[in-house]
Amino acid sequence: MNFITGLPLSQGNTVIMVIVDRFSKAARFVPLPKLPTAKETADLIITHVFRVFGIPQDIVSDRGTQFSSRFWRAFCQSLGASVSLSSGFHPESNGQTERLNQDLETTLRCMAANNPSSWSSFVMWAEYAHNTLRSSATGMSPFECQFGYTPSLFPEQEVETAVPSAPQFVKRCRQTWKRARLKLLKTSQQYQHQANRRRRSAPTLRPGQRVWLSTKNIPLRTESRKLSQRFIGPFKISRKVNPVTYRLYLPKSLKINPTFHVSLLKPVLSSPFLAKGNPPPPRIIGGQPAYTVHRVLDVRQVRGSRQYLVDWEGYGPEERSWVPAKDILDPKLIQEFHAHKPSHPGRNVRSRS
To answer: In angstroms, rounded to a whole number, what is the distance separating the alpha carbons of residues 90 and 76?
Structure first.
């Protein structure tokens, strides 16, 4: 399950709920006026899934508020269905709906290019085109996989009737279905080719092993994103969540979900950085622990008090933190920072009460 958002208003709708049956690859596209709450999502599941596919055994989704809420977990538990949330910064964990989202967006973009607010009228035909298109995974169309036979499609020959508007209407439907079918097929082939070019076998990891973590989606405090480290760590693996997802022991300063897809991890083989050993312990000054500041990176104002972003000696960028000016014992560090950035007096930041 997933949602397509950010669409222009069309017949009162701005969102599409995308549902894929993992077995048959059959899809349901449900236009909605807004992003639903957890309870509204449960109602939609009952209406659009139960009567077509039955009660699910497992529901895969992203970590949206609807799916990470207590109500959603309790709802699925009451059904006897397990909840599978995609791993952090890796939407491919929910790959079937993520790719179908891209296919559907591309199809609607082409079909509603002249009038974007008309996309709602094409959703039904995009769904019909998908469910009658042969799947490379099963060798059958989702419709045939579900019901055991190929559905009747539009006849190629037009039938003459006493009411000309009826065959003209059917002709427009057939043309719309063909356009959607051809675009879905072309888009699917393109994504499959691109994915296979970049795909590689996943490394074998185990709990307790040290790994490097990709900084691709991590909000590090850095002066230049392009020149910052591509990997940080190493961090120990806490446990294996599933065959392609691992949970790490991360420092509290990162404040992110510690579960990652294996594609964002790199096993530690050998590194000159590891030869240095563990980070240096604090020194005791005036009975209190003190750490050595490598350099000052930024400054801000919080409730009239100045704070500095500090890079600590012997620690990685994930450990950088804001500290009050009074806690930086060497005034030369602050003087050097302001001399290097004279036009950087410090931005005002509201502190949370």
So the answer is: 23
- With 0-12 / 13-18 / 19 or more C-beta atoms within 10 angstroms meaning exposed / middle / buried, residue 248 is buried
What gap in Å lies between CA 266 and CA 214, rounded to an integer? 8
Q: How far apart are CA 262 and CA 57, in angstroms?
A: 25
Under DSSP, is residue 201 helix (H, G, I), strand (E, B) or coil? coil
* Of 199, 32, 27, nearest in space to 102 by CA: 27
- Give the position of tokens 């563990």: 278
The per-residue pLDDT for 39 is 92
SS3 state of residue 44: helix
Counting residues of the chain whose pLDDT is more than 90, the rounded percentage is: 10
Tokens, residue 49: 């899934």
Distance CA 2, CA 59 (A): 11
User: What would the pLDDT profile of 3-23 be if each residue is shown by its tens digit?
Assistant: 988 888 999 999 999 998 888
- How many angstroms from the chain centroid is the CA of residue 201? 21
* Pair 184, 125: CB distance under 8 Å: no
How deeply is 321 buried, as exposed, middle or buried, from its count of CB atoms within 10 A (0-12, 13-18, 19+)? Answer: middle
Which of 192-201, 244-253, 301-310 bottoms out in mean pLDDT, i.e. has the lowest?
A: 192-201
Extended strands (E) in the chain: 2-4, 15-20, 27-32, 58-61, 82-85, 210-214, 231-242, 245-248, 259-261, 265-267, 283-285, 288-290, 293-302, 305-312, 321-324, 347-349
Token digits of residue 349: 């930041």
CA–CA distance, 298 with 344 (Å, rounded to integer): 8
Structural contact between residues 177 and 129, judged by C-beta atoms closer than 8 angstroms: yes
pLDDT, residue 17, reads 92
Tens of pLDDT, residues 293-349: 888 888 888 888 888 888 888 777 767 788 888 888 888 888 888 887 776 665 555
Q: Which two tokens stand for residue 239?
A: 């446990």
Residue with tokens 């939407």: 91
Asked whether the predicted pLDDT for residue 35 surpasses 90, the reply is yes
Structure tokens at 77: 């538990």
**What SS3 state is found at 69?**
coil
